[in-house]
Amino acid sequence: MRYPLLPLGLLVAACGASGARARDASDEAPAIPESAEETPAATEPAAEAWAERTLGPTVTAAADLPWLACRRDPSLERAAAYLAERRAQGKKAPTARGLELTLRRFGSPLPSPQASVLSGKALRDEDLRARIHISPEARCGLRDATAPNGERTVVLVAAESHAVLEPIPTRARVGQFLTLRATTDPGIRSVRVYLTAAGGNVHTTPVSTDSTGAFVARFAVDAPGMVTAQVVADLADGPRPVLEALVFAGLEPQDPNDEPADQAAAGDDHDNGSLYQWLAQARAGSPSLTRDERLEAIARTHAERMRGKHVAAHDAGDGLPTDRVARLGVREVGENVAHARSLREAHAALLESPSHRANVLSNRFTHVGIGVARDADGSFWVTQLFTSPLERP
Q: CA-CA distance, 95 to 262, in Å (whole number)?
């Protein structure tokens, strides 16, 4: 019997925000002075608890499925177990944000996860081996659960890994200073750290390198709420988030899957009109961006290129955004790309990512073009292209 390998919730890929400029400038926040720092003691999170720390990825020596080529990660194993149990209980699949937050809940800093489900009453390990194909370099977790009707559900959670985060607490006091320390794959020579503060503002924070070659950044939790810290590295296909950590001050994190999965799709449509509307709403109080047909054409071509390659990247074989807009004589360019089940979820994923949010809210840009390509499975490939100034012929 053949069992289809189906997506569980949204398989979101939001590639790192790309930005370039022709003049020297700095968007970094002022350096944070040294201060005492407290880190909660490490504890193993219970099945339904939010992890005390975000760290890793790490590798577990799992011997239950020796044919599974990917590198098993304990945080992803716990996330897969949680999602499998929810599925066996008949609960709705997570939204894109719900899937990301599920990984954070269990202590994983890996961005852009993918999750798939295989179900059947007579599902055997041989069926899994025949249907699951995954890169040996990917980090993964695989767990199963059985529904009351006897149906077995297996969930695979996987993500790429290009960096390792040292433990950082998920809870802090207002006014507390925290240190983010990470090591990256060989060949990655620089990273940027973006912070979304509790109020929604985004800024970068200075990054230094210590004697071991690790990247170090310090930041303060300056208000009650949730702070998102994101590490962006330049990879072969352009900048991409490689690590993300959430820190909560003055509140307890909530179940990431309380919101119904279909709510994010409400009000969605099938072209870029809604994305322009939501972009304008997100920038309320800031100068409006001018919609540009030339940028829109370039963005649409890139979205179609990503669809053809089935990869969300700044370079999908057609060059980086700076190359694609070079003939327009722009001074600055920024780009956000995403792949999502709906346009609403693509927009939400970009706003929740600090580096992408920085492009959306930036006052450096004056013009924008948004391109959309719909895939055969109903999902959307999205490109937002920002420039300033745009020289007219």
A: 8
What 3-state class would DSSP assign to 261?
coil
CA distances from 126 to 70, 77, 130, 205 (A): 17, 20, 6, 49
Residue 68: name the closest of 139, 152, 161 by CA.
Answer: 139
Per-residue pLDDT reduced to its tens digit, 317-356: 999 999 999 989 888 999 999 998 899 999 999 999 999 9
Q: For the chain, which domains are there?
A: 53-159 (3.40.33), 163-249 (2.60.40.10), 272-387 (3.40.33.10)
pLDDT in tens, 4-36: 333 443 334 445 455 543 332 223 332 223 333
CA gap 29, 206 in Å, rounded? 7
Token pair of 101 as six digits: 């937050």
**Three-point CA angle 251, 253, 258, nearest 5°:** 130
Q: Name the pTM for this structure.
A: 0.85
Q: What are the beta bridge partners of residue 141?
A: 157
CA distance 304 to 295: 14
Residue 64 DSSP label:
S
Look over the chain and give the mean of its residue pLDDT values, rounded to a whole number.
84
List, in sequence order, every beta strand (DSSP E) within the chain: 6-7, 13-21, 53-56, 71-72, 114-120, 139-146, 152-159, 163-169, 171-172, 177-184, 191-196, 202-205, 208-209, 215-220, 225-235, 238-249, 290-291, 332-340, 367-374, 380-388
pLDDT digits (tens, 9 = 90+) for 80-139: 999 999 999 998 888 878 899 999 999 999 999 999 888 888 888 788 888 888 888 899
Residue 295: phi and psi, rounded to 5, are -65, -40
